[in-house]
Every structure is written in C-alpha cells, then in structure tokens.
Amino acid sequence: MHSFHYHKGQLRCEGVDLSALAAEHGTPLYVYSAQTIQDHFRRLDAALAGLDHLICYAVKANSTLAVLDLLGRERAGFDIVSAGELYRVLHAGGRPECCTFAGVGKTREEIEYALRKEVLSFNVESEAELEMINAVAGESGRRAPVALRINPDVAAGGHKYISTGKSENKFGIGIDRALEVYAAASKMPHLRLRGVQMHIGSQITEAGPFARAVAKVAPVAAELKREYGIEFFSVGGGLGIVYKSSLESGQEAWWQHGDNTPSPSLTVEEYAAAIVPALKPLGLRILLEPGRFLVGNAGVLLSTVQYLKTTASGKKFVIVDAGMNDLIRPALYEGYHEIVPVREPSPTDRREAADVVGPVCESGDFFAQARELPPLRQGELIALMSAGAYGFAMASNYNSRPLAAEVMVSGKTAHVVRERQTLRDLIRGEHRVEEAAVAH
Ligand code: LLP
Questions:
Q1: Ligand 1 test: best mutation among 37, 44, 54, 60, most atoms within 8 Å of CB?
Q2: Is 361 among the catalytic positions?
Q3: Which CATH architecture describes the domain 48-290?
Q4: Which helix (H) or strand (E) holds 165?
Q5: How far is the CA of 102 from the centre of ligand 1 (A)?
Q6: Is 85 helix (H, G, I), strand (E, B) or coil?
Q7: Which fold has domain 297-426?
C-alpha cells in the first residue's frame, strides 16, 4: 500500500498534494491517509483469520473522531483508558459492548459511566481497583465484567517510558499471583470474570517478546477458563512500525516503496505466526489492542520552515512552525521521525547536518538533531513522517499555541476533520478574578 509518495516532484498523500493542503489550511497541519488506516486494519484482521478475534483499537494513539469513525466502520472494537475516550468512541458511533476499559487509576465516576454504557470489560490492574469496581457495581445494581491484567515479566518495547511488561512496572498483577487474585475476585458478588489481559510494551519490532509473553500467560488463561469460564484473552498492543528508513544511507525510504511494511523486522504475518499457535488451542476469543500499528504510518505533520540559523560554532538550525506541543515524541522519548521536504529534493543535492527545532522556549523542543537533510529554504514545507500515532493525541497548548488542524485524505478528496484552534479557543472557560474580589 502506497499512501505518501512523490508525484511530479511533490509529496502526496494518496491522490492529494500536501502543498495544496498546507496552502489551504495552513501549518502545522496533521494529514492522515484513510486508505492506510483501513489497509493496516484489514491486514492485521486477515493475518488473524484463523482465530476468533476482535481488534480493539487503542484509542490513546489517536482519538480524533474521524479516525474512530473510520475504524468503527471496519468493525473494530476499542481499547479505552478514560471516560473521555469512551465518550469519544460513543460519539463516533463505536459500540460500547466492544470497548475494553484499561488503566491503573480509573475513578469512581469513570467506573460508573462505563458500567452505565455496558462496556465489554474493565481491565483491572490491582486488587484495590477490583474492590472499587465491585463496590461501584453493587451500588448501581449491576455486575461489572472484569479481566485482570497479568504482568508476564517479559522485557519488550523501545524506550524505557513505553516498556510495561516487566515486574517493576506499575502495570498489572504479577503472573505468580494471578490465580490467587482471580480466586479473590470470584468471591466478589458484583463482578463477572470475563477474561484475562496482558500488554508488554509499545513499538516492539520483533516477534520473540510477544511469543514469550503469550507462552507464559496461555496456561494461566486455560486454567482460568476451566475454573471460571472466562471468555477472552487480550494480548494487548505493541506492534511496532517503521520510523527510521534508510534515507540517510541514500536508499529509498519506506514510504517511497509502494509497500507499507509494518516494521523492518516484523510483519503482521510473522506477528500472527508467533502468537496464533499458542492461542488457538485455548478456544478463547482473542482480543488485540494495537494503536500505533494502525495509525502511526498513516499520518504526517506538515510544517513550514520559518528561519534558518547558523551559530558561531557553525551549528545549523532549521526553525519550523511546529513545536514539541504539536509532536512531543522526539522531546519525550528521543523518538525518531523521518523529515522530508514536500518538494522532492534532487538526488544530487548535498545533504547537510542540521537540528530541526520548534519555536517553543525549551532546548528540548527539537524534532531532529544533527540530521543529514537536503537543503531547506525559508518558507519551505517539510513533512514529519509517521506522526499518526501519539502525535496529535499528545499535543498540548504549551506556550499558548493553538492546537493544529487535522485533515483526513481519502483518494483525491481531503476533509478537515478538526479545525485549527483559534486564539479565542485558548481562553475558553477561563475567568479573570474581578477587580473588587482581589485583596489589596
Ligand atoms: N494496550 C495497552 C494496555 C497500552 O498501554 C497501550 C499503549 C496499547 C495497548 C497500545 O500500544 P501500541 O499498539 O500503540 O504500541 N506515547 C508513546 C507510546 C505509549 C504507549 C502506551 N500504551 C509513544 O509515543 O511512543
């Protein structure tokens, strides 16, 4: 599948020139390819065809209504972590009975709301939370469907902030205590034990950790099915994508190939091959919670070069109009995003090392450091690639910068799916203290 490519010297998303979108809607601008999201969903779905399964998209990766709507129409379920995410899913037409509610700190209000909406399951992360859900369910005269999140103690994932499957993480219940905690949960009158869940980390680009974690949890799942009749096993998300292509070495980038390889070392088929053999004999419904894999490579952040600057020491800066408030992954995780000019560079252009930085008043506000880039001019458009996951979803108003607009492209048409915030939006809901009320 081929969604971002140069066509007649211009970078396109599907059939739409990105420069035309920037001219019409301004920058910074997030642009998504509907085809890529659909294609990734369908490929993962097809790879798991041998299993009774439900793909619950991890909403945290990109919770824009248009994305949720698109995936809902593919019959995806949703993995949510807050009342706000559930509200969004419902607003986008998603089915509550296909939502799993995860997260270590669900509040009473969130539990009440999700119970009222009749979600598929609460993925529970501690004994204290089990007791809270049992109490809230009792008060509202319901039985809460629950699954315990088991921490399989498997190391996986990219940056230390996104590894979750080791026992020292705050997530889940240790595998050695799982049966004991299920036994305790089975005695709580307002709970219904529906499943078991695990998630080992994010941006995992090899099959080994998935296979090891499934192998550890599968026997527990089998026992829980025998003992309590649980119905599902959620294997979490974490499937990694390509961020770093071989552009620097002069080869083609992934998005120029006409083939959206999910990751350099792990395809959906390999992923499925690593987990399906251990899952199939369980006879349980298998849930998956991919976020990044479905939307990561489907989005770019367009930005305009504001200024070029060379310091006394000869260091070059490309200052752009997007900042860490729009895309925080480089600042927070040293996340790598390919940066390409929207106007196709000539292969003979000499590349030069530069830092690409935003306007936010922090040294951490960078998108790339010492990156070899083709020559960029003031006013030129660049695209930060693979920004569809944990891009807009993690954006903030820091430095009182309005949130960017978002556009979804489908074929030759582009839809504004979120308007750019205005300055007025920045102060909505705020109140000055009236003069008379301020003590002098
Ligand atoms: N399920 C659970 C329980 C999770 O905690 C997560 C992600 C997912 C599923 C989805 O993982 P994915 O398939 O997207 O890897 N902001 C970071 C990533 C944080 C991931 C948090 N949990 C980043 O930008 O890399």
A1: 60
A2: yes
A3: Alpha-Beta Barrel (3.20)
A4: none
A5: 11
A6: helix
A7: Lyase, Ornithine Decarboxylase; Chain A, domain 1 (2.40.37)
